[in-house]
Amino acid sequence: MSELGAVDSALLDVLLREAPIGFALLDSAGRFQRVNRALAEVYGRDPAQCHGRTPADLLEGDPDRAAHDSAVAAVLSGAGTVHSEHRLEGGPPDASGRPRQWALSWHPATGSDGTLEGVVLIAVDCSDRFSAEVALRRSEERYRSLLTATNQVVWTADANGDVQEDCPDWRVITGQTAEQYLGRGWLDAAHPDDHEQVARAWTDAVADRTTFDEIFRVRTQSGDFRYYRSRAVPIMRGDTLMEWVGAHSDITTQHDADDMRQRLTQQLGEAALRTVRLQKATSDLAEALTVGEVVQAMTEIGQSAVGADTTTVGELDRDNLRLHVLRDDSAVPGGRAVPAAAPGDLRVAMETAVRERRPFIAGNPAELRELVEDDPEVLAFLRETDERAWVALPLLSAGQPIGALRFTFSSARDISDEEKVFLEALAGQCALALERAKLFEREHRTAEALQASLLPEDLPKVKGISMQAFYRSGTQHVQVGGDWYDAFPLPDGRIAGVLGDVMGKGIKAATGMSRVRNALRALAFSMPEPADVLTGLDRMFDATEGLDQVTTLVYFVLDPETGQIDLSNAGHPPPLVVGEHTEPWLLAAEPDTPLGVSSERGHHKFFVQPGNTVVLYSDGLVENRKRAVATGLEELVTVASQARPEVVGDPQHMLQYLVEGMLAGYEQDDDVTLLAVHLPVLDTAPE
């Protein structure tokens, strides 16, 4: 090794001592001759401890020892400069407290004549670069792990949208070769139904330089298809598009979960809707009282809740031998349900459902032909009908068939298991409603017969008097009302008449009314004067009737010769008098208390002029939920004053006119009973 001059030696000493880079000079035997402080600290020594020793001596027991020996030997053997790929850790920690990392390089030291005299070791602090490399490597590892965890495949394309770099991960999925994949060949892995849409979207994104984001099905090597989401973004440098970077993500599991969730949501929604529809149908059928109303309600339910084009209700006859179609009341004169013969296809569908006691479902004509085994009648029917789907369900009561329910559709219909359950529940409600309606009609006919038996069949015919009565039940149920009227001749030639009202409905009110009527007739024949008759009824009430059996009535006795009326009123609305030439008025006599309430019975006398009509009526004519009695009485006088002369002179027309005028715009909620006594103007015979 050449000797340095004094100046050069001093300069070298300063550099070795103060430089942040580690310097060392090793002789031809690999021993340290000069070592600056920075390099000595890397080895954990001071410079004096390093002098005359080899790096291997300083690294005894350290894994880096062999690397140092190899590097020194290589330089001394003439290999030139050697850069170690290994990072030596040592020296004071950096500002963050982490150990420093040093990059080592070994250079040959030659004399002036070019002779190799030793080795120069240079150590450079690369802690920052090492940390960056570690961070970058960790980031890459995390990124790759994330891609693996999310089933993502990264891909790139040039500015024109063509793939130039191979993507083995994608080819493993699709089975494509590199040649098949490059360019825009990756699009060929898309499902045939999705290919055109995805290719167009990629072309548009490239042209517009906008983000590409599409979901499509990809054919895998196994031949099945999986859902992928492909998203790519343009990489710009200023205004220049450099390339596209994207990722294919397998979203099959998510897509299947979303699809399942949507199906479940739809099924739950449909189930909730069917529940609401069944509740509505149950409510509507509960309000149907007659068989015709049940059929009408089912027709509306079939349209709104089932979506059927036609709905048919059939009933078995008493012998359970034949099935008849029931019509709704609105389609039949008189409001009665009548049976009708069933057409051929109805006989097959409905009778099969009744016979087998299970639903008969044909979602299209082919299914119908298969179910009926190509019945010639059905084949002929199919050639003429527009119907394309049929559902027939048995109507069961206590497990026994009583009829059938049938829906038809103008288009093919796939009846799911859930809808089948709904239709069977609907048929069950229809069967209950039909049974209730049949029971109601039987009991209603019985009630009507009982009501008719309690009212007189004919009013007495007396010369000089015209009498008419009107009765309309105000209940929608099968109970008998408490209103009644009666008229009969007395032994002395006069006519007795009465109109009364027993509070309540049903058998109790009817029997109470019957007792009062019979007692009144018996009293009238022995002591006909009104006050006497009502006094006798009070005594009968005390003996036979309860305190809650409130009864009101108007009883009168009319002399046909003179037109005199003697009248007593037991808590009843006042009679109406309608004259041909005078304004109508109410008899102003104050009514007494109802029967059974002790009081002195009043007796009122007045004369009916020829041409006038006296009308007795129940409170159902003037009182309802929306109109008080006082208001109703005022309206009654007003309505009567507007009657035409020909109506005033005809008691039958007069009663009909009053009922129509007083009930117009109101819902009748009580019995309405009227009794009219008219004294016509008699023509005088010529002398």
TrEMBL record:
Q: Pfam families, alphabetically?
A: GAF_2, PAS_3, PAS_4, SpoIIE
Q: Which UniProt keywords apply?
A: Hydrolase
An example Gene Ontology molecular-function term: phosphatase activity
Q: Which residues form the PAS domain?
A: 139-209
Q: Does the keyword Protein biosynthesis apply?
A: no
InterPro entries tied to this protein: Bact_Sigma-Reg, GAF, GAF-like_dom_sf, PAS, PAS-like_dom_sf, PAS_4, PAS_fold_3, PPM-type-like_dom_sf
Query: What is this protein's record name?
Result: SpoIIE family protein phosphatase
